[in-house]
Amino acid sequence: MELTANKFKANASKALVDAQLQKALGNVEKGFIGKRQKAADALPEFDALRDNARDIKNHTLAHLDLYLEEYERKVTAAGGHVHWAQTAEDARRIVLDICRKANARTVTKGKSMITEEIALNDHLEANGIEPVETDLGEYIIQLRGEHPSHIIAPAVHLNKEQVEGDFRRVHTHLASERDLSEPVSLLSEAREVLRQRYFAADVGITGANFLIAETGSSVIVTNEGNGDLTQTLGKVHVVVASIEKIVPTLEDTSQILRVLARSATGQDMSVYTTFSTGPKREEDPDGPDEYHVVLLDNGRSAMLGTEYQDMLRCIRCGACMNHCPVYHAVGGHAYGSVYPGPMGAVLTPSLNGIDETGQLPNASTFCGRCEAVCPMRIPLPKMMRHWREREFERNLTPAVARYGLKAWAFFAKRPKLYRFAASLGMPLLSLFGGTSRRFHALPLAGGWTRYRDLPAPEGRTFQQAWAQREALKQEAGH
Amino acid sequence: MSARDSILGKIRASMGSPASNDDRRRTVADRLGSAPAGIIPERAKLAEAERIELFCAMAEQFGATLARVGSYGEVAGEVSGYLRDRNLPATIRIGADKRLKAAGWETEKNLELRHGPSDGSDMTGVSHATAGIAETGTVAMMSGQDNPTTINFLPEHHIVVIKAGDIKGDMESVWAMVREKQGKGEMPRALNLITGPSRSGDIEQTILLGAHGPRALHVIVVD
Ligand code: SF4
Fold it and tell me: Which residue ranges does the record assign to the LUD domain (chain B) (predicted)?
């Protein structure tokens, strides 16, 4: 997709007045937050597992070269092929070559953010191969010529009436008087239409949630079963995955699986967790004849050893965006990049450079919710702050923001002065660069004010309010 | 330089001054060899009877239906009853699993058995699980002629038979079983962990069953 990250502010303003979008976005808060909390509360070991998941990934990243070598050895021993791709372009070329060798006319696809990152669909289409997205959400947005607005719920920005309109527009072979008013009828229709596509496809392309060094397995975690049909029914299965998906062992995978589904959808386990190892074997009645893995770097090795290394622990659960007040207000498309939300605000500048993406690290209120819920304990706000500093150093920041930051730094070192200035009706906010003022003046800003102390809605600063509250508590204690 | 060497080179260069390669190699070999288990939730550590009960409760919580029978001989009757109750055609797709051969099919004269992988035309498929995971009500299926992978995904109804003794507390115990069958570091072509029937929340975050895989999952536990 075309990167429009530096139009974030303009995109966000449009999103805020888009009534359809605002209605659909209500489902994010409604759907995800409570479910995650319930699932986390039901497992006493949840937080300890998060620590362990973090440690496993840190260990893996510290030995990534060796685990990659071992993984490659095991895939090859199982009869699979490993292809190394330094850039998105390399990966596109490799996948196209595999498809051409298989004389592929259509390919089915399981849901995969990495193939969005490398813009695979456009490339296949340009070369006469039809990609068919089979995940329901991905299918819907493919019909609309859109990109995912969420990493696990790609069509979360849409309402069912919009989906109905798309199905009527595209599925013209079906009776026009059919009832599509309920989500279940839309689902059934997509199921019927896509069933035929699995069997007709020559190649099935999936991503991977994990690559296991111990066994050479790729793992996909899904609920619909489309990923499994994609990789089982095609003659060739191509896995596209980035290098940081490696984990050492089956046991390590299990540790992370325990936090993945809970953080993502609030399930204890997703419906289908599939471990694939090589192509069809002699005694196998089904499965693909060929099994390929495209290992993509695309800027990740350059993140190792930097302040952004922790981002490589990300397991793409989506919890950070599900809990982000900015995401709730503007949705995923406003970010103008493949990866939206807090994880995107950190990862996109790493992958695409800060020049093109400088507005993203500012798409935050620093409320801290993302870090609080991230199963891999990634310090997202800290890293966004790093990017802001980088952007500042490089003088890419608009003058008013630069001035605001300088003013903030001045006051931050002088807390008494800050308190004084803040008590004068909070004019400091306007110095911070305009974004904060725009957002806190919005009617939809409930998400911000809930989690942050600025601006003070009752005309007192947070510090004043806090001091007063503490004083009252003390009085009550006497 | 090949893409492979270049990527690995960049990773190595990023590590600043890593411990000698030998030390790092030993660390990696140790971890792969010993596969430490990490944290196992308490609820996965129950004794057998409670473990089986937890498995059943969890599977039902995640949308599966459950039946318990006393022996393999009763499986065919249970399958027939399931089909009858739902007005499904008396035809099932089934693999070559020996345990399923002895399921008492001869008493169900009207039931037609189709063997081999599914071609997408089957309404109901029957498979035998390798193991169960009580912690999450999950069944573990291994690919191969005994239980072709397509039966797990193509039929509208998936009936999974599992031996009560194969129900383990946690995923880690399933890995121990797989290693025993396949050898350390080896896996079947496909290993499917299945928890409930297929579902999607992609339209307005409303959870609907039966997206692309089976609309219903019925688990028969053989005591
Ligand atoms: S950053 Fe954390 S919360 Fe966000 S998608 Fe990645 S793992 Fe999930």
Answer: 124-222
Considering the domain architecture, whether residues B127 and B26 belong to the same structural domain is answered as no
Please report the residues numbered 140 through 179 in chain B whose beta carbons come closer than 8 angstroms to any beta carbon of chain A.
143-145, 148-150, 152-154, 170-172, 175, 178
pLDDT band per the 50, 70, 90 thresholds, residue A364: confident
How confident is the model over A346-358, as a mean pLDDT? 90
ipTM of the complex: 0.97
A423 to A119, A401, A459, B45: CA distances (angstroms): 50, 22, 9, 57
Domain range spanning residue B152?
A: 44-222
pLDDT band with cut points at 50, 70 and 90 for residue A440: very low
Q: For residue A206, give the CATH number of its domain.
A: 3.40.50.10420
pLDDT grade for A409, boundaries at 50, 70 and 90:
low
Are B107 and B7 members of one domain?
A: no
Contact A345, A363 (CB under 8 A): yes
Domain count, chain B: 2
| Contact between chains at A70 and B58 (C-beta distance less than 8 A) | no
Do B151 and B105 fall within a single domain? yes
Chain A positions in Cβ-Cβ contact with residue B97 (cut-off 8 Å): none
Pocket of ligand 1 from Cβ distances under 6 Å? A 314-320, 343, 374-376, 378, 380
Domain count, chain A: 2
Q: Chain A residues with CB inside 8 Å of B62's CB?
A: 267-269, 271
Domain region containing A447: 407-477
Q: Which residues of A116-209 form beta strands (DSSP E)?
A: 130-133, 203-206
List, in sequence order, every beta strand (DSSP E) within A201-249: 203-206, 210-212, 217-222, 236-242, 246-247
Q: Is the pLDDT of residue A405 over 70?
A: no
